[in-house]
Amino acid sequence: MSLFDDIVAASGLDELVAPFTVSRLLLRADVQPDQVRPEDLARALPELERGIRVYLGEGEADAAVARLRGLAG
Amino acid sequence: VGEHEHRVGAAGQQSVDPRLEVRDDASVERRLDDVELRVRGADRRDRAVPERSSRTSTSSGGRVWPSSASSVGRASGQNRKWTITAPTRTPPPLPGRPRGNRPPRLRRWPPDVGDHRSPARSARPDRRTRGRRHDRGPEAPADETISEAAQEQFLHAFVELLREGLQGGSDQRELVMETAVPAIVSAGQTALDLVAGHVAFFTALSPPLLDAVPERLRTDAAAWLARYAADYTREVTERALAAEGSG
Question: Which strand (E) or helix (H) includes residue B7?
Answer without folding.
Answer: strand B7-8
